[in-house]
Amino acid sequence: MRKPLVTKEQRFDPASVRPQMETVINLFDRYLENSPYRFGKSKHAVMGPVAKILERSQTGHWSADALAGYALRIHEMHRKARGFVSTEARTALEDGIRELIRLIDMVPITTLAKVAEKVEYGLYYQRRKGASEWMESIRKEFEKYLSSRYVTIELFREAWKDKNITFEGIYPSRSNEAYRKGKGTRKQDVDEFWRNRTEEDLEEEDE
Predict the structure, then answer these.
(1) How far apart (Å, rounded) are the C-alpha atoms in residues 38 and 203?
(2) Distance between CA atoms of 157 and 78, rounded to whole angstroms?
(3) Sequence-separated (6 or more) residues with CB below 8 Å from residue 47
(4) How large is the angle between the packed helices 109-150 and 153-160, nearest 10 degrees?
(5) Angle (CA) 52 73 202, round 5°
(6) Residue 93 contacts residue 31 (beta carbons within 8 Å)
């Protein structure tokens, strides 16, 4: 009996291009870290124009320059970008697109969608993990701020008008109900904490 024909595409293992996928992910991650999409909450906001780049790159009809121009225009139209793209963000974006095109050239068309999906969700995971770690660092920093400001838990509870609250586990959000309905000096403390920082509240961006 004849053996079934095994094509080159069927033998292709996406794991063989894992280093190239990681390079693309890291470059797009660096772009997003220096973009208005840094503080996104939804998947759409987290990924910025990268999701569209991944989608269009699979058609074979877009050059690296065309993809970069498309992505930069989306970036410029973001309300927080004010039409500006930093050199660091632009360089990382361009490098990421070039590496993505190289990756696509290495992958059979029948496996392309699967590889692109792995890149997309690998990047999304990396962005969400980074945001989670950042938020945890802010919580710890806010805890130190509160404990140095009030010294004792009794003084803190009196100031915030909450007999059960503790220093631990509070993220200094300015967009949640606890902030809007906060009693005592809660709003004042949160606002002062952010005034002393150059970074923005992660929860403020939701586009």
Answers:
(1) 11
(2) 41
(3) 32, 37, 40, 120, 123, 124, 127
(4) 100
(5) 75
(6) yes
Closest CA to 49 of 30, 25, 31, 65: 31
State CA 76 to chain mean position distance: 18
pLDDT at 10: 61
At 194 the pLDDT is 94
What type of residue sits at position 203? E
Task: Enter the tokens of residue 65.
Answer: 């320059």
Q: Chain-centre distance of CA 87, in angstroms? A: 19
pLDDT of amino acid 200: 60
> In this structure, what token pair is assigned to residue 134?
């950042």
Give the residue from 110, 118, 101 showing the smallest Cα distance to 61.
Answer: 101
CA 93 to CA 82: how far, in whole Å? 18
Q: Find the angle CA(133)-CA(135)-CA(139) to the nearest 5 degrees.
A: 115
The model carries a pTM of 0.81
3-state secondary structure labels for all residues of the chain: CCCCCCCHHHHCCHHHHHHHHHHHHHHHHHHHHCCHHHHCCCHHHHHCCHHHHHHHHCCCCCCHHHHHHHHHHHHHHCCCCCCCCCHHHHHHHHHHHHHHHHHHHHCCHHHHHHHHHHHHHHHHHHHHHHHHHHHHHHHHHHHHHHHHHHCCHHHHHHHHCCCCCCCCCCCCCCCCHHHHCCCCCHHHHHHHHHHCCCCCCHHHCCC
pLDDT band at 206 (very low <50, low <70, confident <90, very high): very low
